[in-house]
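Anyone able to model this chain together with nicotinamide-adenine-dinucleotide?
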Amino acid sequence: MDQFQVKDKSLAPQGHLQIEWAAKHMPVLNIIKTRFEKEKPLKNHIIAACLHVTKETAVLVNVLVAGGAKIALCGSNPLSTQDDVAAALADSGVHVFAWRGQNTEDYYRCIEKVLDFKPTMTMDDGADVVGMLHSKRQEQIKDIRGGTEETTTGVVRLRAMECDNTLKYPIIAVNDAFTKYLFDNRYGTGQSTIDGILRATSVLLAGKNFVVGGYGWCSRGIAMRAQGLGANVIVTEVQPTRALEAAMNGLRVMPMSEAAPIGDIFATATGDLNVIRKEHMQKMKDGAILCNSGHFNVEISISDLEGLSKSKRTMRPNMEEYSLKDGRRLYLLAEGRLVNLSAAEGHPSEVMDMSFANQALCSEYIAKSDKLHTKVYGVPKEIDEKIAELKLHSMGIKIDELTEEQKKYLSTWEMGTT
Ligand SMILES: NC(=O)c1ccc[n+]([C@@H]2O[C@H](COP(=O)([O-])OP(=O)(O)OC[C@H]3O[C@@H](n4cnc5c(N)ncnc54)[C@H](O)[C@@H]3O)[C@@H](O)[C@H]2O)c1
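re: yes, here you go
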């Protein structure tokens, strides 16, 4: 059985430096690691992890290993693996099966390789491991104690499985912790999406019409950071309350069909498909730039773009120029895959510190719990609050404590107007 498969093992020294740099910015995980080293809460567990193979993920892997787990890891996107990090993990003895630029067949084969290690827990980012176990590897499910899910789209898929009774083991929706989505989805995706767009295009954002598809946690982060760089932000939405929020945050809100002819840059993060499609592309300006930060590469219809085009060429790394039959050119970044992870390095370590602290502590929770049912759980409140406390502490921020009088006041109803 293969023990690992990476692009180039000789990249390991650079990967180790990257991991060291990330770890310096992940104080909460470092605290958890110190405790895990002593207590070994994950002893005898084998975790099948399908995550973006970044320097931050490597820090998480090291924490899980410190806790006694054996890890088999594959990438959760064909373009997001950092090859030097994958090499360093392989060098450290982790069973890693990931490289940047996988085709779809390689991608699913690596998930199978990870499952060959006979896991007792799963750790997903997009629910592809759960999907594989429930479709092709059902005989392994009895050995699985539980799993965790990192992202919104994965949680949506798992809740759909729970609803139609196909889910066969308990999952904790890490995405739904406050210390995950309020920071990772918003500030992480906000900053790293802009980072990806700038690395791929090097264009000025100030003064551009920047169209954001969605106004959820990720997309509002993108809108906020694009606005901060001087772009004129336009939001498209399907939920009235979210659209209203965008409008009251001073942003223009309109349907994609109206935004299409005026946008210079389009960034989607909706978790939905075909948010930008033929009818929109037909109206876009010559030179418009299109990208996506939602989990799957379905938000921009690439088949529509191909259908409208007569040729394409790679202009720069992570940027394809599509020449349309009518002479216009549209620029697609990172093949419509998560631009923040494909064209940049994903979220900064400081936010992944909290997301992955949730992963580590939820894995421990699964290992220690006897009575988890087959359902999608939220992250236990005490874990979420502990992570917020540790993060504040690491940032040197102190907060007030309720006085006894305030506790009493907040738990009674008798006192009203005085
Ligand atoms: N790039 C990353 O690193 C990263 C990080 C976290 C999450 N994600 C992914 O980003 C996506 C969004 O996650 P989120 O947490 O922001 O979800 P969310 O549910 O908070 O927001 C999604 C928003 O998109 C809107 N929407 C849905 N269909 C739409 C359409 N056709 N047009 C316009 N708006 C539409 C929804 O109404 C909602 O407000 C998911 O796929 C998630 O998995 C990516």
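The CA atoms of residues 212 and 235 lie 5 Å apart.
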